[in-house]
């Protein structure tokens, strides 16, 4: 397994006098190399906290995360994050935004030009390389953010609801573009979403998180035909299975209950 999450827990204190409130508790799952895993659950269930722990931005209070057999305790370019907000530097054009991350990672100047060109071409933005963020649409900004992390050639791509603020047509286009890139690069992805349809379309497997304190309540393997489809019978069945699992996990799960495979 590329990622192995072992019994992690995380709690936050609302004020100096308050008791720590668990956000994630005793959560375990694993992600294989080349697998696309979606994390789904209601607001406040700890999805973004989990992603920040996977990235090494914050430590768990208990438990361990292993990346390719090594303990995760700090950020690493091999684990790159795409956030909901593209967070591009507004005073830099697109090319400069991509170059900055590569320079910070120690990439030689002689390699910058080709790496940036290849990354922009992956997301169909090569013709916009001199544009500034304010000149880009929301979809173009998200493609730029994706190009910026792909330029680092991470082994694990962590995505925190990157398409949730986009209109439906743009969202579907970027979903298809992401899948194409993942197939080309055999990219491992952990993708946080609150959309059942998005999870059912993108994922090889879906990890469902319950309400605090959270456990991996269910893991669902997505069944599909030879090609992905948004509308075929298998896809509709996947959505129904996911919705049923979500209804189940929204009920209070008894402490110590095993995570069912659905």
From TrEMBL:
Keywords: ATP-binding, Nucleotide-binding, Transport. Residues 3-236 form the ABC transporter domain. One of its GO terms (molecular function) is ATP hydrolysis activity. The keyword Nucleotide-binding applies. The keyword Transport applies. It comes from the Bacteria. CDD domains: ABC_NrtD_SsuB_transporters. InterPro entries: AAA+_ATPase, ABC_transporter-like_ATP-bd, ABC_transporter-like_CS, ABC_transporter_ATP-bind, P-loop_NTPase. This is ABC transporter related. It comes from Desulfuromonas acetoxidans (strain DSM 684 / 11070).
